[in-house]
Amino acid sequence: MSLHGKVAIVTGGNSGIGKAVVLALAAQGANIVIDYVANPAATDALEQQVAGLGDRAIGVEADVSKVADLQRLISATVEAFGRLDIMVNNAGIETRTSVLDTTEAQYERVMEINLKSAFFGTQLAAKQMIAQGSGGRIINMSSVHEDWPMPGNTAYCLSKGGMRMLTRTAGVELGPHGVHVVGVGPGAVATPINTSTMDDPQKMKVLDAAIPLGRMATPEEIGAVVAFLADEGATYLTATTIFADGGIMHSSPGL
Ligand SMILES: NC(=O)c1ccc[n+]([C@@H]2O[C@H](COP(=O)([O-])OP(=O)(O)OC[C@H]3O[C@@H](n4cnc5c(N)ncnc54)[C@H](O)[C@@H]3O)[C@@H](O)[C@H]2O)c1
């Protein structure tokens, strides 16, 4: 695999899955723009790690729930590296609230950060890729919950269900331009978003027992899937989702 000469943006790129994606793409030779909203020190440290792999990374502070920030992110990428080949819409949050108790503010925040960001991230990245004329890869960090209900996390499931249809519809529209749109659907991954579960041994026991592979994924295992989708090996994939869930979707409905 080689991504030498390619340029990638990873949103929410300085922690968890995003950080692993940055390192997996850099390991294949891509230059990277790390989008972040918190913890600039983590972004600085990650830039150094990427430099250690022989590539360049720059951090850009941009709130992906705002279209103007997304536009600034793309412009900063083209200014720094001259092009954009891979857009990873990874930033996301969850509220862990049910359909009965989710507030309007919680609903809007989840939809803006998880879905609106991916919609306009896809739109703006595709415009840049089409202008370049050499296609590109847009990878949406979805979840098993694009398909699989999670009681007590309704808005999150809704946002990922919307992302599923974004991936399919944009994939169909953009295919003729050589722009591939693919979703990645992780199951449970050991990252900060799951701190409350990971801090509770009883919850971890139930979760591990429900996963056919017997454990959560590491962020690096999801980064490896994204690196594959970004590379030339994945030339015939678009408008679909690749699930990396240890088999949980087919073994524990409703967990
Ligand atoms: N960890 C899991 O089990 C799991 C499973 C399936 C899908 N996912 C998805 O993976 C993605 C990454 O999550 P993670 O598990 O690495 O957790 P994480 O909390 O480490 O990562 C989320 C990132 O998004 C950033 N972010 C939040 N709001 C933002 C905004 N407005 N603009 C830009 N960045 C913003 C955060 O600062 C953070 O860096 C999310 O989309 C999540 O839904 C995670």
Please give a structural write-up.
The structure is a single chain. The chain is α/β, with parallel strands linked by helices. The protein has a single domain, classed as Rossmann fold (3-Layer(aba) Sandwich). The chain has 8 helices and 7 strands; from the N terminus they run βαβαβαβαβαβαααβ. A 7-stranded parallel beta sheet has the order 3-2-1-4-5-6-7, sandwiched between helices. Helix 2 links the parallel strand 2 and strand 3. The N and C termini lie far apart (36 Å). The mean pLDDT is 96. The site of nicotinamide-adenine-dinucleotide has 27 residues, from helix 1.
Topology (elements, then pairings):
Elements: E1 7-10, H1 16-27, E2 31-36, H2 40-52, E3 57-61, H3 67-81, E4 86-89, H4 104-132, E5 136-141, H5 154-174, E6 179-186, H6 195-198, H7 201-210, H8 219-230, E7 240-244
Helix pairs in contact: 1-8, 3-4, 4-5
Bound molecules: nicotinamide-adenine-dinucleotide (NAD).
CATH architecture classification name: 3-Layer(aba) Sandwich
Which homologous superfamily in CATH is the superfamily? NAD(P)-binding Rossmann-like Domain
* Mean pLDDT reading: 96
Silhouette: globular
Helix/strand structural class = alpha/beta
CATH fold-level assignment: Rossmann fold
Number of domains: 1
Beta content comes to 5-15%
Question: Which regions have little confidence, pLDDT < 50, spanning 5+ residues?
Answer: none
**What's the helical proportion of residues?**
40-55%
